[in-house]
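Recap for those who missed Tuesday's class. We walked through two folding examples back to back. For each one, the amino acid string is listed first and its predicted structure tokens come directly after. Nothing is annotated here on purpose, so try labeling regions yourself before you check the end of the notes.
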Amino acid sequence: MRIVYHHRTRGLRVEGVHIRGIVNALRELGHEVTVVSFPGADPEHEPTANAASGAGRGRLAGAVAHLPGVLFEFMEIAYNLVTWLRMGAVIRRQRPQLIYERYSLFLCATVWLARRKGIPIILEINDSALVERVRPLWLKALARGVEGWCLRRCTGLVFISSYFREQAEAAYGAIAPSVISPNAADIDRFDPARFDIPRLRSERGVAGRVVCGHIGAFAHWHGVDTFVQALAERLDEAPQLTLVLVGDGVTLPAIRQLVAERGLVDRVLLPGRVGHEEIAGWIACMDYAVLPDSNAYGSPMKLFEFMAMGVAMVAPDYAPIAEVVRDGHSGWLFPRRDIAACVQRVLDLAIKEDERRHVGAAARNYIVGERQWCNNAEQLLTLLPKGVSR
């Protein structure tokens, strides 16, 4: 089947991982996939750590990203014209049998074109005008109007969590048929058997230590700074425990300062941002992991990659995470926004080697059995109308 995958993102970081995962899985199933990207974006080629941080990004993407809120949203609306021209040309040239679009706010041209041409279109919902967003939404009523129109008129919907679907059904009524498809992982890349773990642990200075890790953006809403501050007060309770916190962001300088002031530089390692190709090697050095905070609707990509590596995670009990993690079986849950409970769970597990290994093995088994990218690709294809080749 000829499929066009369209998105309006820069294709970096997690969004690039998700795009490549779905595209490659559809191709492995035997489909011909053409990716239509934001001008200058190239999600099919994995960026280096420097590129993923924004260095060297395209002038257009950089300029648009820094526009004031309302002006930025008017640019998003205007992008429908770009989409109409580009996708119209792609449809004439490729004659796709399916269009798969990573949904973006205000973007409706693709749904309009697909309906006019009689082509099935499936929208993947990772964002919405109905949820609290990092970038405030100014034209909220218009965004919700466009969103409702798209969700009612597309062929099918792929939601990354039940929370998203429940919000959409409550706000927009009879939306298109849908499936819940959380994130996934590449079990060939994220395979602990690929790594010489004792050597890696020795090279990174954590040989003989119990390592609890985290990988991701150091942003306020991820709670890493609050977690480190709270754990620093009690780290003496687990003398064998070392934290390895990989990533970069606005809270990293404060964390570095705290670690230095408390004399914890040998107990809290902060290697900074690494490229996605290096992430599995860092996870291989960890015994278990922690996600101090998330949000009510997201499906954290790193959760799946840690689990694929057989490294289970201490995570908040938001519904999208609880849909994936069984407490005490494939990970450990704590009450959301309760940092004290998170810290206690991390400390308790520092002396429970057998439990860490048992739960980590169950986490990998779950990913292998249910949450590979091929599972997501097969699931989205179930939304096609009867009679369309799958």
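Example two. Treat it independently of the first, because the proteins are unrelated.
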Amino acid sequence: MNKETWHQRAQEFKVDGRALIGGKRCHALTGAVFDSISPIDGRKLGEVARCDAQDVDAAVATARAAFDDRRWASLPPAKRKSVLLEFADLVRNHAEELALLETLDMGKPIKYSLAVDVPATARCLQWYGEAIDKIYGEVAPTGDDALALISHEPVGVVGAIVPWNYPMIMASWKIAPALALGNSVILKPSEKASLTALRLAELALEAGVPESVFNVVPGDGSVAGAALALHHDVDCLAFTGSTRTGKLIVQYGGQSNLKRVWTELGGKSPNIVCADCPDIDAAVRAATTSVYFNQGESCNAPSRLFVETSIKDAFIEKALAMMPAWQPGDPLDPDTIMGAIVDRVQCESVMAYIESGKREGARLLGGGRRAREDSGGYYVEPTLFGDVAPDMKIAREEIFGPVLSVSSFTVIERAIQEANDSPYGLQAAVWTADLRKAHRVARALRAGTVHVNQYDGDDITVPFGGYKQSGNGRDKSLHAFDKYAELKTTWINIT
């Protein structure tokens, strides 16, 4: 589909921003709404229900009723599997609609909404559907006088709060394993990008997920999100977002019913390139692509680049040569690879970090300006800083924008030390042809995922999450089931 056709479809698109509670689309009980503004051009897409604590109460009540009557939880795993597989197929069948919603709502290029976000969402739903009837219990090795069975049971009502940078993918990472196990789910999407979450819930109903099992309550994080986290009848909460908000969410869990709270939070991932890197061009492509992809709005973006001094100048020269390809363009043009920042507030935050870098003495090597301002949208050039000291704000704080900071090192131990000198520990990378060095550095880096001679290698089969203030628990892989299940022992005397 060409740019003109996408624009035509965008103009014809009608937004339904009502919540979905108890299997029905509905307005917030107060009637309150907020405007959904497209970062592409600043136009109003429609109005979205501004749910509050009353709406969260209603969603929790209907989710609890659905869990207690076992309309979903008691279905054989093979039946839940068939529903989730149908859900995945419906996502694929509505790929263009969902991709357009995602791009209009949060600004990413339609190229990637269609080729990355929709397929990844469908793959996640399919994978957990296929996995659920392959999870076995255990028999403990007791004496002959007893039989001890160890089984997994759904935890109950699961709250999920997801961010705006990958709205569909992040939602699927929570809802797929939670639904597969038989839980009821209440999803609170980001107020900056709520539209695909609401459409996913409709598709879930169409696929056969029973009414009230999957609910979506859009609204402000400080109101609807807080109400969900504080609710005494929510058994588990899964959150992806900033570390600052994550700390509040964990406190809310303790202040209420001591619900388990799982957090996937911020990152400031280090990328270490040694002089014996086996392919410097591949390292440069990975360093730029992984930071500028999705407009830099990725928690795992390797925004701290450490390059060995002897190859630093050549590396930077190659990186600067690649940056023109990442100039922001029209997100509805299939040739565009970098789109719009999600909204004005985030755009201003990114620009403030760029100004901070210049003020603190980092050397601006490329970019650093707003782009496409005549569009009415929010765009920032790909930005590259050199001579970045470890105590600068741009080296320590998560920017969540297309900003790459470069430092140099001569001794690998120093690079490791600076890489680990961060409150975050989500991902990291090392580039070297020395296998022993690769293993040694990978073991030393304090991160949930360490890439060797690549970045962004990924699959639903591997866990995603971090150390330190990057959160706890893991999304993806079979390990995600642990978050949404109770482990029960049944002890039977047989003598």
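Answers for example two:
The longest strand covers residues 146-154.
The radius of gyration is 23 Å.
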